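User: Could you write out the 3D structure of this protein bound to zinc ion? I've included everything you need below.
Assistant: Certainly. Input first, then the structure.
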Amino acid sequence: MRTDQPKVIHLKDYKAPDYLIDETHLTFELHEDHTMVHTQLVMRRNPERAGESADVALPPLMLDGQELELVSLFLDDIELTRTDFVLDDSHLTLQPTAERFVVDSSVRIHPELNTALEGLYKSGKMFCTQCEAEGFRKITYYLDRPDVMSRFTTTVSGEQERYPVLLSNGNPIASGTDESGRHWATWEDPFKKPAYLFALVAGDLWCVEDSFTTMSGRSVALRIYVDPENIDKCQHAMDSLKKSMKWDEEVYGREYDLDIFMIVAVNDFNMGAMENKGLNIFNSSAVLAKAETATDAAHQRVEAIVAHEYFHNWSGNRVTCRDWFQLSLKEGFTVFRDAEFSADMNSRTVKRIEDVAYLRTHQFAEDAGPMAHSIRPDSFIEISNFYTLTIYEKGSEVLRMIHTLVGAEGFRRGSDLYFDRHDGQAVTCDDFVKAMEDANGVDLTQFKRWYSQAGTPRLDISEQYDEAAARYALTFRQSCPPTPGQAEKLPFVIPVELGLLGAGGREIPLRLEGEDSASGLNRVLSVTDPEQTFVFVDVTEKPLPSLLRGFSAPVKWSFPYTRDQLMFLMQHDTDGFNRWDAGQQLSVQVLQGVIDQHQQGAVMQLDTRLVDAFAHVLADTSLDQAMVAEMLSLPSEAYLTEVAQVADPDAIHAAREYARRFLAGALFDVLWKRYAENRAISKATPYRAEANEIARRSLQNIALSYLMLEGQEQVVAACLDQFDDSDNMTEKLSVMAVLVNSPFEEARADALRRFADTFKDNPLVMDQWFSVQAGSPLPGGLDRVKALMEHPAFTVKNPNKVRALIGAFANQNLVNFHQKDGSGYRFLADQVITLNALNPQIASRLLAPLTRWRKYDDARQSLMRGELERILASGSLSSDVYEVVSKSLA
Ligand code: TRP
Ligand code: ZN
């Protein structure tokens, strides 16, 4: 907990370390009521810094350390006494007397009491670690910063019976048994690494084993360690790992470098997973998957996260970050890599749709809120607060733009140069961009504003057509709203991928004024000025532009399309992503009309063009079924909130539900047909988590969710049949989700009860059970959530449970969370206050919905601010919660 004023860390204050750690030798003695950590650091003065102060004495050595009980300390074999060093609650400072020296320390720590899940802690009966970003300082005194890279050897000792498996990074080099039932194992990691990549695991684990032969012919042992009861849920993760290893060789030329690669699944974990060198530690929700217990979405998430962590071996581990301001260097790049991997393994268009919908809903909201920051922030109080959608998702978009600008081959040349140049180093985002520039002979100076400027740029586009001259002009005006600490922004480089559609959807060859001939039907323009016009020539009919294809830049763009034009694009655009996007734009326009009607107390009426558009989509058998499912999904309430000036959660919910019912009624027969044919196939074939089948089930299930709104007996019967007679969680859970929102109380209660009976011992399935209920918009949502918190399967100490119940309520159940009496806000603030003391990272993340107060009406604003103030006044706050609350109130 914070005792003094929190310190703001600035990028501009970066200094290379005074000392380096060549070798790190760790010994852990694990016990039930404490753990001893003995550390030997082989250190020397950093030659890079020595020059600056050559004539003065050696600077003091300030080691990071928190919540450690120092038992002994030696400098070059001489024990230091209390007067030889200075100890406060975050540092141990001592005075070296030579350029090279060895520090030996012994500390006692308490993993068994660690509820923050940072450092060494217990998840169930197992010991595990989470060191990123600054958790290693809770294990031992160290230079806990990513630019200090060291070679580690680790010895772990524990009771043989309780902890038969003892793991750390690298290769096992020795093991043995001690006195009285204890044993030990020593691991050596041949690669230098920063402390945040350290890992240790001890437990009674089973493993699934496989192997991979790398492109140079080396055999790598692959192991996934899990609690024994989960041994049947590892195959999908193992398959995903092998695909990832192959893909990284093929697409980036990157080979794995150790003889063994391990994944361990733990139940208590703050995030998705962690890329520790050779020993990835995963939230069990990001590893375990099999048909009966995990949905299609869960299978795809496992594939993506396994890939993400594996890809970090190069983008993060071999080449790491100089400091935490460079976090997007590894995270943005690795998200981009995993997104491309998923696109190659599944449907590229559908993957892009999912990612863009997520970015526009959640990252745009973050960028418009009090915590807005650029992908390379200038300052922070608590780095854990910067593992954000901006660093990850927008960071990935920035790399995608570089990819678009230099092309796939140019990007590969750039990444080869980057890995070559910087292997074994801790570097900056500038180093990455420099490699891209040097490999391609391009100047990305202006482009780099994406790294330093926060906020979502606006791009307003208009057209001018001169029929007589056959000239078509597009004018782009860019701007970017102010964000905290950045009032004025300079123009960005915005890549605009586009095409022009003529009659019947024919694509018009693109020739810009001044060019000798047309070059293609699709091209990328670089918008670099505040206002810029591009003139296309030889345009003999008035075209309809298809703009920002594939979402070529993370901006909010507008073009004055009519609804009929959007319908045309939905049917005829050759870019699949833009077909979907046109549908979204149409839906937003139509829904905003209904929202206005609801707010004015008028009768709600739906523009029936939306019905026609959906009917076309349903009739188009050339479309991938997953595309159909995406195109039938109305923009979420969260997205409608994001695009509103002042969000009215009641009107948004009412309008969207009205539209869904209207569509269900108007399209019932065709929805039923597509449901029934796909359901028949699901019933007749065993489950496979494969793209076509996932696509089929997603259409089946969205059709069912519409059909249930009509409440016909035939549908309810189909629903119950799907619940009872299905071999997979995808079909079961989608029934649950429609039932909890339906008026059929008996069927609902029955399904919920039977589901819980069946799965009460499977925590990940129970998370789903909590989530669907927490998300139900039926009245009384808060009371249902409070009641569920008393359920034996719930505990506030497990982050997955908190996310499944409290997080789902605050983020997905907007009508209930935003109740006008402020009860939802009060509840969330209470949970944040409780969690602040237990797990600051989770408390701080849970808080996000309250930070969005500027989006709402005055009454809601003051209620939300009131709760933020109550949190601020609640006592001793963690730096995590303090930073978010104080910035939100500023
Ligand atoms: N580097 C991890 C990833 O991107 C992120 C991570 C895992 C993390 N656990 C964490 C970040 C805990 C902060 C705190 O996959
Ligand atoms: Zn990552």
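The CA atoms of residues 564 and 609 lie 8 Å apart.
User: Perfect, thank you.
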